[in-house]
Amino acid sequence: MNIVSSLARLGCAVVCVGAGLLGAAGAGAAEPAGGAPPMREIREVAGSFVRGAALPAWVERQAPPPTQRKDPVVLRLRDTQVRVGDSVETFVERAIQVNDSAALGEIGQHSLEYVPQYQRMNLHSVRLLRGDAVLDLTAKVDVRFLERETGFERGVYSGTITVALVIPDVRVGDTLDVAYLLEGSNPVFGGRYFDDFGWDAPLATEWRRVVVSHPVQRAVAWRMLGDYRSGGVEPRVETAGGVRTLRFEQRAIEALPDEPLVPSDYFKWRMLQVSEFSDWNEVARWAAALFPPVAAVPDELEALLAKLAKLPTESARVAAALRWVQGEIRNFSVSIGESSHRPHPPDFVLARRYGDCKDKTYLLLTLLRRLGVEATPMLVALQGPRAPAKVLPSPWPFDHVVVKARVDGTTVYLEPTSSLQTADLAVIAQPPPWMQGLLATAQTTGPVEVADSVTREPGMLDIEERVTFAQLGAEATLEVRATLTQGGAEVLRTLWPLMQPEQRRQLALEAYEKRLAGIELLGEPVPTDDLARNRFGWSARYRVPKLARPLQGGWIMSYAVPSLRGLVNLPPSLQRKFPLRATDFPMERRYALTVHWPAQVSAHEDPSSQTMDGKVFRAESHTSFRGSRYEFRLRVSSKSADLAAADMQLLLQDLKRLEGLIVGVVVVEKRMIVDPATPEAASAAATMRRGMQERIDLAGGAIRSGLNQGDDLARIHCQRAKALANLERIAEALADSAEALRIAPELAAAWGCRGEVLLVQGQFADADTTLTRALALSKSDAQGIHYVRGMARYFLDRLSEAAADFALAAAPDEDGSTELYPRLWQAWTLQRARSPLPADLLALARQDPRGAWPRPALAMLVGDLTPQALLAEVDKLQGEERTLALTEAWFYVGQRHLVQGRIDAAREAFEKCRAQGITSYYEHIAAGFELARLGKP
Asked: Where in 755-868 does DSSP place strands (E)?
């Protein structure tokens, strides 16, 4: 079971309202979509079906117009006539011509639908038109009555019957002409009339007609819906004998082929909607009447309410009531007749122990009302979340109902058909923020968006991988932790205890066994649950042989991000007419890889970041390799759910760019492997110096080659300038940075490089001015420039400005370790300025005090760890990773002592930082400045 695709297939809600976008209230239901689920044959419902009876006088028959089209299938006539009175009568006629033998099945079997609980079907005529001949099959056509078997398995039983006509001896060129009359409408709507009629189709249509007649005193509005083809049809209005008639007609309508993955609330085909509801308030009042107050409840519910009332807070009482309904009442819908929309009374639902969304909503609503909680039923459109804003007022767009409640002053949406939600009420999954709903109250004036009243963090899948090599060339240990949030967490939390051990093992192995040959799961996956944040997942350990392979005296390890499967829905063809439902929104995927090489690996690569800002998603990656630890972090977040058809090529380009981020290699070069006998500090500093010198040499060769000009040449001078500065060769670094500015005076990177070199030299005011110029020109690396300018302003004692720069330098993804460094500077800068630390900074510092470096340092700065405890955390590291972290740790300890006024202790810590010899680190450079400011003891 794929953790992404499997959870995507599992809905947290049951679509249970019968007249939503997937099934209209009247004649539209008689035109079932293709690809119907399997059926089982049943007996005819007595008295609900006749064949061959005469039509009422008001029906106007129209001969199917001829066609010259050679399409495999052509709709010659598509006629619908409706008579609205004390009841509703709907006449439908279809004339379908087949011009290709492969399409004979289109007329060999023909299906109609009706609901015998409130409708009667008169199959008036079934004819085959063959040339000039008319073959009347009405009396002898084989008629079978079917109901959907899978509806019962899905927990939905609607009472809809399919009338299957089996037509014998159909031939190429034949036209099947079927005419029938439906009498009756669902009484749950109180006699109010509304319906919808498809207009465009995947088939060419020679003549489409819709005629609606109604008493003049009953106002029936109409609207032609369509996002691809709009309008184009105006009715001819006639009034006679107290009856108003709307006639809509169009000839020669071209086919509009279907496409997959179209947003559910995009009207790809035109649709004629009619409605007698005057406004949304009338719809809301109709809906409110479906959920009247309940005067008395059964003894079992009284006992439950007594227990709930004893809970200490309103939030606890509401959460307990919700979980009781979710857990005790099985999701199953029997929506026959009025129960398509009218819920069953709570005592009835309790007695049979099952119900659908409206039944369970009514039961939960009753409990909450008795507990004094402000709670209201809300109709929502799961299948078309933004459709209500486009359509006429009616119950038609809504297919689900939830409870909107006000709990302890906060709005929360309660989904009684969801998986059991055991997490804190404040963090349970909520509807998507753009979903539109209609509150069932007498005061409601129209649909509202969920975003108007609730905020929601993105649904997230977070994968953390930790690889450890005991020796170069040896097998690796892989530790994985997968975490889901929101609805995904709730579904997996429910499924986990139901899964067999083998299913759990497969869940843990499936993302790896095809990619990592010989991988072996060690033990069983272990569940991890965080109810306070509504996060659930699992962790597992593996043995992986030959994960790294030798390469030119070094080693290389390949990796691929496993959590992006199913990120984007890529259609079969990029040539589209309709927009694409490209991805989920809001959605976020995170991936973190940490590789611990043996202690003799000594790398010193500057952290690097990449950002890809596409049409529907944004990706940010961060990479660092210091000592023997390699880290890669990736965050991909969706920006919107839908993509315009014209932007499909851009999506493909974005995916190709993303491919460069999600597949990578970790390379341990020969030069990074040191003699284990070499003292740690000496080897770390030596490795750093070798790396810097290699960069200087490479840049020098590129400059001398003459192959680079303009901005590219300036950037190479900048690279060499920074490497020279890191080796404390300041005069040469200044010369290179000046040359970069001469070559490209409008290049932000050149100004940033110059400012950084000036900072290293200790010219803080000049560095501030130069970096400010870089920010004015920068289009990408503003965070990095703010970070360095913050240091310059810190040493200028402009502490408030420095703290503001460090805040801007902190990336949005504060869980990534590389973004913690500006937070560290921000913390002691504010403390030196005697300013309070922001709440988000305090929360971040206390999130994981003994987590990955440098989290312990941030915890120390806010007082959650002592300097001694911080150094003990560093001692847990190995090899050069320990040396590099020690350089930083002593500097942070020195800052802590300075804030607390312990000057001698601060001086000693800064000296120990400098003693590590890691001259390329800001901490080494800044420690020198702090020592200069402190003076000799």
From this structure: none
CA distance 341 to 354: 16
Q: Mean of the per-residue pLDDT values for the chain?
A: 87
Q: Do 231 and 363 sit in the same domain of this protein?
A: no
CB 29 within 8 A of CB 396: no
**Planar angle of CA 236, 239, 240, nearest 5 degrees:** 135
Same domain, 427 and 464: no
**Distance (Å, whole) CA 618 – CA 638:** 6
* Averaged pLDDT for residues 877-903: 90
Q: Band of the pLDDT at 244, cuts 50, 70, 90?
A: very high
**376 and 435 in contact (C-beta within 8 Å)?**
no
Within 10 angstroms of residue 723's Cβ, the number of other Cβ atoms is 24
CA distance 94 to 206: 11
Please indicate, yes or no, if residue 231 is contained in any of the structural domains: yes
Secondary structure class of 493 (helix, strand, coil)? helix
Residue 934: inside a domain, yes or no? yes
Sign of the C-alpha dihedral, residues 923, 928, 933, 937?
A: positive
Tell me the pairing of strands 587-596 and 629-638. antiparallel
The model's pTM: 0.75
Question: 247 with 209: CB under 8 angstroms?
Answer: yes
For the ranges 268-272, 673-677, 818-822, 901-905, the lowest mean pLDDT is seen at 673-677
User: DSSP E strands: which ranges in 291-399?
Assistant: 330-331, 333-334, 354-355, 374-380
Q: Which domain holds residue 595?
A: 459-672
Cα–Cα distance for residue pair 75/707, rounded to 1 Å: 67
Query: Contact 286/244 with Cβ under 8 angstroms?
Result: no
Residue appearing with tokens 């060690």? 522
The residues that bridge with 372 in the sheet, in sequence order, are: none
Tokens of residue 266, six digits: 């995009």
